[in-house]
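Here's my example:
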Amino acid sequence: MKANDDSVTVYNGRNQPVPRSGELNELSMMYFNTLENTSLINIESLKCNLFIFTREVQYLINFLVPPDSYPVSAVAFYGYMSQSSAHNLSVHHLIVYDLVLINKGNGYNKGDGIFIAPVTGDYAFHFSVCVSPGSESPWATLELTRNGNAIVSTFEESKSAGVGSNYHCSSTLVISDVDVGDHIFIRTNQPTRGAIYSGGAGRTSFSGWLLFR
């Protein structure tokens, strides 16, 4: 111990002064004030970070899926010819798939066979062509077009009716960039020989769906 003018100072085992009771109260208040200020700073920092994060998430949502767009799953169609076509179709004859099983987004028109894209994005399109045996060895080639410009085609041929003859179908799948309002349809690439078959043995069909914007 060491005497001074105010009181007695007590030293601990490490020869360090031990705070008096008044000093302990003052130090305790300083400690808790520091903790409180630190907590307030941390809370405000978290609030600020949460606000920034929320704004960034909202920006990404608006960027990826604009408010006026269709949900990804809402644009899809599938249809097929309810019966075989007439014989010997001319070149660029538009194929109409009049029996429609699904048409989400209402982009496909079964009256004229044209799909008008309701939103811009990357689409997948699939179409098939079938031919049946006949005396003239039927064959047909179809192409998918975007605004009248061919993108891809498929071809199928059958043998003359008789031993070894059978129904034949071919199909193709394509992925394409499509803008809102684009017209997508199927037409003959060359004049057909015989009819395009669509019946119980195989369906000549056309389908499409939006992959993403």
